[in-house]
Amino acid sequence: MTDYETRRLENIKRNQALINELGINKVKQETSTKRPPPKKRKLSPSTSRPTRVSARIATTERPVYNDEPSISHKASSRSSRKSNVKKEQSVVVDAVETKAQSPPADLEDIRKGWTSWESVAPPPTRDEDGTFHFDEHPTFLPNKSPAEMLAEGAFGGSYYRPLYSKSLRTTVEDDWKELPGEWLKDLNVERYLTSSSYDPEVNKFKVRCGQSIEEWEAAGWIAHAYDVRGWFQWYTRFWQGRRCDDDDRQIGRWERCVGERGRWRRMLLKKYLQAGVKTVADEGVDEEEVSPVMHQTCHQWAWEVRQPSLDEAWAGQ
Q1: 140 FRET partner, CA 20 to 30 A, in 61, 259, 288, 301?
Q2: Which pLDDT band holds residue 5 (cuts at 50, 70, 90)?
Q3: Which residues have CB under 8 Å from 180's CB, separation 6+?
Q4: Beta-carbon count within 10 A of 131 CB
Q5: Residue 149, domain member (yes or no)
Q6: Which residues are 132's β-sheet partners?
Q7: Are 4 and 12 in contact (CB under 8 A)?
Q8: Contacts (Cβ under 8 Å, ≥6 apart) of 136
Q9: pLDDT (tens digit, 9 = 90+) per residue, 206-253?
Q10: Following DSSP, what letter does each residue of 114-183 receive, concatenated?
Q11: For residue 146, pLDDT beyond 80
């Protein structure tokens, strides 16, 4: 055996001894051994629930937010149900865990802006079909005035109740007093404007619909610098001649809901067609044959079905 081979064998022995000392072979052998898959735990067919749930959360209807008035719907697939659950849970967590903070530094300036505006536009005109026209906004065509909406019943009588804004971290109240006196002279303010609770019986169609101002705020629909209560408050001020940078956005929302191609307008007219109703009778008659919820929803967006619109719907069949 040569000197080279002798040294080679000695190196091999030393390396093997080192491997044995470190236990490398043992580790390699264990990792290479396949483990049988774990047995799946049998699940109960019933859905598991938390063992403890706050009574307030348990009795609260979780809102679903979108940019239009909501009507209850069912998820069409398992994945969409899971997605909705996650969204709803996040809303509840935010509502429960958000801590109160100090009001923003410019709160007083924001408050002043709500009432410091001046009327710069003339009142709208009304055509023979009852539709209102605003000269500078030809696509904004409501057929209910703010005064008519309030007198007939809207928002469960609670639109102008004391409102706590999470974004501004302050309570807003008594802003109903800025409404024109002629709108209020025959109105029970406590029942039709400032009720602390939502009363469906106050509504024109005696049903509950829509979402609360708090839900609108959480969804990001409120432009606090202009109208802390949302669309209807904007409408009352726009009607009186105020013009602001939020006008186009609010008119766009109206158009998507009850404009010529608005979602709820088309759905309501479709209900008339399905029911075979071809004539819009006096207020509150034929509406019972179609959806009161859709009627109330459209009413709260300053629009109701009139004969010309119904005739157009039938003509398009």
Answers
A1: 288
A2: low
A3: 147, 240
A4: 17
A5: yes
A6: 126
A7: no
A8: 121, 243
A9: 999 999 999 999 999 999 999 999 999 999 999 999 999 999 999 999
A10: HH-----SPPPEE-TTS-EEBTTBTT---SS-HHHHHHH--GGG-TTS-EEETTTTEEE-SGGGGS-HHH
A11: yes
Domain ranges, residue 218:
140-315
Mean pLDDT of 266-272: 95
Tell me how far apart the alpha carbons of residues 198 and 160 are, in angstroms, rounded to a whole number. Answer: 11
Q: Reduced to 3 states, what is the DSSP secondary structure of residue 232?
A: helix
Q: In the chain, what's the furthest Cα-to-Cα distance?
A: 121
56 belongs to a structural domain: no
Give dist(CA 21, CA 10) in Å, integer: 17
pLDDT at 24 over 80: no
Q: What is the pLDDT, as a whole number, of residue 37?
A: 55
Which of 174, 175, 165 shows the shortest CA–CA distance to 104?
Answer: 165
Q: Flag whether 287 is in a domain.
A: yes
165-203 core/surface letters (b: 16 or more CB in 10 A; e: else): beebebebeebbeebeeebbeeeeeeebbbbeebbeebb
In this prediction, residue 62 has a pLDDT band, given cuts at 50, 70 and 90, of very low
Number of domains in the chain: 1
Q: Residue 158: is its pLDDT beyond 60?
A: yes
In the block, residue with structure tokens 């030809």: 138
Angle at 78 between CA 72 and CA 83, to 5 degrees: 70
Structural domain contains residue 4: no
Residue of 136, 104, 138, 139 whose CA lies nearest to 225: 104
- The helix/strand count (H/E) of the chain reads as 14, 4
Residue 18: both structure tokens together? 């080192």
DSSP state of 226: T
Measured CA to CA, the distance from residue 199 to residue 136 in angstroms comes to 37
31 pLDDT tier (thresholds 50, 70, 90): very low
